[in-house]
Amino acid sequence: MKRDSLYTLTALQAKAIDAYAQKKLGISTLVLMENAGQALAAEIMKTYRGGKVAVFCGRGNNGGDGFVCARHLLAAGITPNVFLIGKKAQVSAEARLNLEILLNLKLKVFEITQENLPLYNSKIKHSDLIVDALLGVGLSGEVRGVYRDVIGLINKSKGYCLSVDIPSGLDATTGKILGCCIKADKTVTFIACKRGMVIGEGKHYCGRVVVKNLGIPV
What we know:
Mean pLDDT: 94
Strand content: 15-25%
Oligomer: single chain
Radius of gyration: 16 Å
Helix content: 25-40%
Shape: globular
Largest sheet: 7 strands, parallel
Low-confidence stretches: 1-5
């Protein structure tokens, strides 16, 4: 779909749709996360021709989408490197359930901190496909610390980068770069484009935009 042919959502509107799905329709966060991760993996499989895959996950629901995506890639015969920013115990509830499934499948999940990040520079640099599931539409403050450093390394790598819902570091409403931002080759977004993806600086960071339905009638 062409992004300019679609209506757009602000961050608040995107959150309101999630709340509507959960509270009015009874569609749980886990179901939405599953649908998102499965859609991501399916989009990757359309063009995947081999090589090393790295999935970078934050500690919130965007990271949960990444964990689900990694599981579906594993089921398709692709073993991704999964990187978590922070510690497993810091991951939010629903995302942690999907993280635990990966661990039950014996898939190694690398915990990245400010201190050990240099150990993973080579893995990041030599990834052929990178999934950016670091930060979602809820981001409002400037990206700092290890998130900023990881985004910098991803942008310096030569791997094809696919962002989940929105490039990490982009304000979903204003299109402003919040300190730093993933420069995606493709962004798989859900329900509709986010307003910040088509205005301001955002239009230069999303690459090709693909809109996926999460099973929410809107």
